[in-house]
Amino acid sequence: MSRLSILTICSLLLSVVTMIGCNHAGEATNRTELQRLRSGELEVVLLSPRDALRHGSDTFVIEFRSLSNGSLIDVGTVRSSANMPMPGMTMFGNIDVQRTSVVGRYAADAKLEMGGTWRMTIEWDGPMGHGSLNFSRSVQ
Fold this sequence. Notes:
With 140 residues, the chain is of the alpha+beta class. It has one helix and eight strands; from the N terminus they run αββββββββ. An eight-stranded antiparallel sheet has the order 1-2-3-6-5-4-7-8, with no helix packed on it. 20% of the residues are buried.
């Protein structure tokens, strides 16, 4: 085999490995399901690289899935908020949600200043219409 053929084969193999790695970059592998919620014909799944949400800065994934077949569904723009009612006041958290390269999967960056039970809202607006859900989640 000529040196050019060997270099061509190595380049092709490297390209294939790179493409496989890029295609899996947006997947939620090695994540723990924290909560599964239902809204109409959608399941909303919260996934984390740990077994719980953490106070301070934390990241997690929000997936929107079809109840009928479990496939990921594009719901358009997603927003989220969090608050913790306390005697005499309410503490507000910040959750920034962005699309990922995988349809139906959104990355969330949260800033929740203390541990405890937080009330959270997830809202979406897009191809599946407008929807929202409210739930409580323990933060460590």
